[in-house]
Design a protein that fits this description.
- With about 120 residues, this protein is an alpha+beta fold.
- About 45% of the residues lie in helices and about 20% in strands.
- The protein is built from 3 helices and 3 strands, in the order αβββαα.
- The chain has a 3-stranded antiparallel β-sheet.
- A hairpin with a 6-residue loop joins strand 1 and strand 2.
- The longest helix is centred in the N-terminal third of the chain and has 36 residues.
- The chain is elongated, with a radius of gyration of 17 Å.
Length: about 120
């Protein structure tokens, strides 16, 4: 009985590692694509028991959004998604409170993504 529990625990642990690697690979592919489009700003919010949000925006030479990625969730099944409604907007037109009126986590991530670091 004990060996069966240990076996199940080891299999679950290995599955967690494999699924985490798979999620990181999806994120890295999406992030690499954004980096090819222009300057990238990244913002993150969330906590231990709240869904985490990672938002990345690519800006062209005129500081307009030319690419985006939003990844949110508690589990390894979170997938990067594009935010088409932001494409074409100027960096100064991005107002987190207006774009995400009901989602505080996305507001925080967008605020951090807009503030490009030099």
């Amino acid at each position: 009985m004990t060996s069966a529990l240990i076996t199940v625990a080891v299999i679950a642990w290995l599955m967690q590692i494999a699924c985490g690697w798979w999620q990181i690979q999806r994120f890295n592919r999406a992030f690499d694509h954004l980096c090819q489009l222009g300057t990238v700003g990244v913002g993150r919010s969330g906590g231990r028991f709240k869904p985490r949000v990672v938002l990345a925006l690519a800006f062209d030479a005129q500081q307009r959004v030319c690419g985006s990625m939003l990844m949110r969730g508690l589990t390894i099944f979170a997938q990067p998604k594009q935010l088409e409604r932001l494409h074409g907007l100027h960096q100064q037109e991005l107002c987190p409170d207006v774009i995400f009126p009901e989602d505080r986590a996305c507001q925080t991530a967008l605020s951090l993504a807009i503030a490009l670091k030099s």
